[in-house]
Task: inverse folding
């Protein structure tokens, strides 16, 4: 699809990644089109799964979620259906907000967001370590966030 995106589509994507609450009228002014064709372009981007959702990004600390960790997970591949079983259990744990299959020293990288250290400790010992398919866990505790960009790294201006 990216080969079919023109400069106006790319400009729309850049603006919406920075502020998806912008009105269609304001968006149309910023890209230099009237509101109707602007809305048509946005709808086309949605229909083609270039834009797949709009959502509120909530500040975790504002709702009492003070701990963010990344956990490297290595599975015991001798267990039957280890991957499928692990992934189905991950889906049921709300505190796991992201899960990636990775290469390197582990099989998965999971992001966990929770209230505090005691909550994380309970999750670690009473939930994660009870998953039979897990052979090893390695926690990487975050201290602070220095960058959290939501805009994908792409040349939106079309200049190389």
Result:
């Amino acid at each position: 699809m990216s080969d079919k995106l023109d400069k106006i589509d790319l400009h729309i994507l850049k603006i919406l990644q920075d502020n998806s609450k912008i009105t269609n009228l304001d968006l149309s002014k910023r890209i230099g089109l009237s509101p109707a064709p602007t809305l048509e372009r946005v709808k086309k981007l949605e229909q083609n799964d270039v834009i797949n959702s709009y959502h509120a990004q909530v500040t975790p600390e504002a709702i009492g979620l003070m701990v963010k960790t990344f956990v490297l997970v290595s599975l015991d591949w001798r267990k039957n259906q280890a991957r499928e079983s692990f992934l189905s259990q991950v889906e049921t744990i709300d505190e796991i907000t992201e899960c990636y299959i990775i290469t390197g020293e582990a099989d998965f990288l999971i992001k966990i967001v929770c209230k505090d250290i005691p909550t994380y400790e309970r999750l670690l010992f009473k939930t994660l370590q009870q998953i039979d398919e897990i052979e090893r866990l390695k926690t990487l505790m975050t201290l602070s966030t220095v960058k959290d960009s939501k805009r994908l790294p792409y040349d939106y201006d079309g200049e190389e």
About this structure: The beta strands are 67-75, 96-101, 108-114, 134-141. The chain has two domains: 7-48, 60-141. Residues 60-141 form a domain with the Alpha-Beta Plaits fold (CATH 3.30.70.920). The longest strand covers residues 67-75.
